[in-house]
Amino acid sequence: MKFPTGFMIGSATAAHQVEGNNIHSDYWALEQMKYSEFPEPSGEACDQYHLYQEDIRLMKEAGLNCYRFSIEWARIEPVKDQFDETEMQHYIDVIDCCIENGIEPIVTLFHFTSPKWLMAEGGWEAESTIERFKRYAMYVVDHIQDKVHYICTINEANMGLQVRMIAERYRKQMEQMAASNPKGEENLQVGINLEAMMKRQAAQKEEFKEVFGVDNPHYFVSPRTEEGDLMVARGHQLIRQAIKEKYPHLKVGLTLSLHDLQAIEGGEAYAAKEWDSEFKHYLPYIKEDDFFGVQNYTRTLVGPEGNLAYPEGTRMTQMNYEFYPEGLEHVIRKVHEDFKNELMVTENGTAMDNDEDRVEFIRIALEGVSNCIQDGIPVIGYNYWSFLDNFEWQRGYSMTFGLVAVDRKTQKRMPKESLSYLGSVAKEIK
């Protein structure tokens, strides 16, 4: 595989998943609830808030040359209209540490978690959120504009739509079960007590009122309406314009969660509809972006009526989707058909017990990226997800995506062979 001079190879994290004690965020509140959907709270996470220097040093020693990380809105503006200069300085220190170690800092302004107070304001279905996010974003950019080159505004802006689609499929399944089994008796191969589930949802709404002041908080990965989705897209567009008007030297982009949609015979129309939902309908809002952040983990097989189950014997990851590193090359090529500016792989990775599988995944994924570059597609960087075994949202700490394992009792870092492998590829770039 070959990469051009200046090509960036590194890893990615998100603040809430690695820093720890993000106590002013909506997710922290969700994790503490009696009727929480989280199996465990994030707690101290990987304590990267305090150990970032050690982590960045490990990146340098391995040979990585970039690091994509997020700045936490809930730390910067823990109270509405009150920015915390001390917390802003913390992130400036992180950026300075990257620069001192020869690591290109790639900053994400928003990665899923919001200030808790935003939920009472209507969250990510309220138009007012865009102006509030813009104020926060410009506050941050004003402080870092002379230290960074790349800014991702919003991580996976399409995640709310993807969650809604999954929720709709799940609701239909529940309705079908309820119709055939109104008492919720456990005659399934997996025990589900529908009556208890419905009671839990009602109790959760009451707890939402106590915690957030509303019974249906619209946090970023809530099932999103089409209006809310376009609001987020417009928000990105407005923030990019504001950044570029003030700091034209900065490169600004958006990231989306994309599947390698592969249609079997008869599934082409459905696959095209899915691709429009995942990517194409955002084109009017990103066409002037300097770069686009590609995020891919697997493929989806599509038939005439929708997504298909994985064939028996399919190689699966801990996340219960297919081990398919080839998907990255396919998605890059598909995106490039419509978006002609620079592309950056902002996330790509796999959660596996065996690190040899992770090395294989990275090798195949990077070979695909190299193939794209040889064919003239302007891919400028690759960021593996994730640098650390971290807090994987509603999967807790059970998923191991990391290049580095973490003993969460001692916070000791234990680099894996996959970190050495990824670094060795970066070291070959002249």
Q: What do you see in this structure?
A:
This protein has 430 residues and is of the alpha/beta class. It has one domain (8-427): Glycosidases (TIM Barrel), CATH 3.20.20. 43% of the residues lie in helices and 15% in strands. The protein has an eight-stranded parallel beta barrel, surrounded by five helices. A three-stranded mixed beta sheet has the order 6-8-9.
Question: Which SSEs are present, and which pair or pack?
Answer:
Elements: E1 8-12, H1 15-18, H2 26-32, H3 48-62, E2 66-70, H4 73-76, H5 85-100, E3 104-110, H6 117-120, H7 128-144, E4 150-154, H8 159-180, H9 194-212, H10 226-246, E5 251-257, E6 260-263, H11 268-278, H12 283-286, E7 291-295, E8 299-303, E9 306-307, H13 327-336, E10 342-347, H14 355-374, E11 379-385, E12 404-407, E13 412-415, H15 417-427
Parallel strand pairs: 1-2, 1-11, 2-3, 3-4, 4-5, 5-7, 6-8, 7-10, 10-11
Antiparallel strand pairs: 8-9, 12-13
Task: Say what oligomer this is.
Answer: single chain
- Order of strands, widest sheet: 1-2-3-4-5-7-10-11
- Give start-end ranges of low-pLDDT stretches: 181-192
Q: How many alpha or pi helices? A: 15
- Specify the CATH class: Alpha Beta
